[in-house]
Write a structure and sequence with these properties.
- The chain is built from 3 helices and 10 strands, in the order αββββαβββαβββ.
- With about 150 residues, the protein is an alpha+beta fold.
- It has a single domain (about 1-150), classed as Immunoglobulin-like.
- The strands form 2 sheets. Strands 3, 4, 6, 8, 9 and 10 form a 6-stranded antiparallel sheet that branches. It has a 4-stranded antiparallel sheet with strand order 1-2-7-5, with no helix packed on it.
- The model has no long low-confidence stretch (mean pLDDT about 85).
Length: about 150
């Protein structure tokens, strides 16, 4: 019975990296986005979220993209919005937008350089727990999360 309760309350975090979106249903627009999704059965308490470039931690998604494409302060990035993913709660069946960066006329050169770079050099990792304090680490390059004792 305990295993059934745990199975019906287990979160499952995954990362969704997209290169286009269609928010208004008017056709896909070139927008780079990253979301954390929880298609699991229970809420996830996201304790830690990390972004890596070439296996090394960077401060946030914006910094990762800047380094990935060799962008400088003089590059016009336009409107780039990103959110801190941790600490936070993510209910079952929901997702949280971490990055949204639309391509515009002003930032086209910078955006195209990011897209031309090898985005597989980027990776993401989250440590999250269930309401029963069972914890896992999810890595973007690995399908199944790894159980851990805690996210400390």
């Amino acid at each position: 019975m305990q295993r059934l309760v745990e199975a019906n309350s287990r979160p499952f975090i995954q990362f969704v990296f997209r290169f286009g979106d269609d928010p208004a249903g008017n056709g896909v627009s070139p927008t780079l986005s990253l979301s954390i999704s929880n298609p699991g059965a229970g809420a996830a308490r996201i304790e830690q979220f990390s972004v890596f470039l070439d296996g090394k931690a960077v401060a946030n998604v914006g910094d990762a993209l800047t380094h990935l494409a060799g962008l400088t302060a003089s590059d016009d990035l336009g409107t780039m919005s990103y959110a801190e993913a941790a600490p936070s709660y993510l209910k079952a069946g929901s997702d949280e937008l971490v990055l949204r960066w639309p391509r515009t006329e002003k930032n086209a050169a910078a955006w195209d350089r990011v897209l031309a770079a090898d985005t597989h050099r980027l990776s993401f990792e989250a440590c999250y727990c269930s309401i029963f304090d069972e914890c896992w680490i999810e890595k973007s390059a690995v399908f199944r999360p790894t159980p851990v004792k805690s996210c400390a």
